[in-house]
C-alpha cells in the first residue's frame, strides 16, 4: 500500500514541477478585456455543450436499493439531487398515514396547554 502512495506523490510532484516550468511566465502576460471575455465565453460554451452529455440518473446495477445508493454516493449524486430536486422520500424517511397524522395533530392542538407553549414560556423566563 505504501508504494501506491509513494507513486502518487511522485507523479503529483512531477506534474506540479512540469506545470510550473512550462507556465512560469503565464502571470506576466497581459491580455485585453476582449481576449479574456472570448476565453470565458468559449469555456462557458464548452461547459454548456458538454452538460448535455451528463446523465444525472445515477448508477443502477443491482436490485438492492442500498447497494445502488452506496454506488451513487458522491458529488455527482449530490448535484443530481440538487438539480432534479428528486429524493425518494419514502425510502429514507418513516411516515405515518395521512389520517393518523391529522388525528394526532388535532389531539395535540386540543390540549389545554400544549408542550411547545410550555417550553416557550420556560425559555423566555416566564
Our estimate of the beta-strand percent is: under 5%
Radius of gyration: 28 Å
Listing every helix as H and every strand as E from the N terminus to the C terminus, the arrangement reads HHHHHHH
Helix content: 55-70%
**How would the global form be characterised?**
elongated
Helices and strands, with pairings:
Layout: H1 2-22, H2 33-51, H3 65-71, H4 75-84, H5 89-92, H6 98-109, H7 115-124
Descriptive terms for the model:
single chain, 126 residues, mainly alpha, elongated
Please describe what this structure looks like.
By secondary structure, the chain is mainly α. Among the domains are: 63-94, no CATH class; 96-126, no CATH class. The protein is built from seven helices and no strands. The longest helix has 21 residues, at 2-22. The model has no long low-confidence stretch (mean pLDDT 80).
Quick recap:
The protein has 126 residues and is an all-alpha fold. The protein has 7 helices and no strands.
Amino acid at each position: 500500500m505504501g508504494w501506491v502512495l509513494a507513486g502518487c506523490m511522485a507523479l503529483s510532484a512531477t506534474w506540479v514541477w512540469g506545470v510550473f516550468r512550462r507556465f512560469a511566465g503565464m502571470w506576466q502576460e497581459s491580455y485585453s478585456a476582449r481576449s479574456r471575455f472570448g476565453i470565458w465565453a468559449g469555456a462557458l460554451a464548452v461547459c454548456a455543450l458538454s452538460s448535455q452529455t451528463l446523465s444525472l440518473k445515477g448508477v443502477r446495477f443491482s436490485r438492492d436499493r442500498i447497494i445502488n445508493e452506496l454506488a451513487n454516493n458522491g458529488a455527482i449524486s449530490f448535484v443530481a439531487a440538487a438539480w432534479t430536486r428528486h429524493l425518494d422520500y419514502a425510502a429514507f424517511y418513516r411516515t405515518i398515514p395521512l389520517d393518523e397524522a391529522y388525528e394526532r395533530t388535532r389531539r395535540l392542538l386540543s390540549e389545554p396547554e400544549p408542550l411547545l407553549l410550555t417550553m416557550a414560556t420556560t425559555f423566555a423566563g416566564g
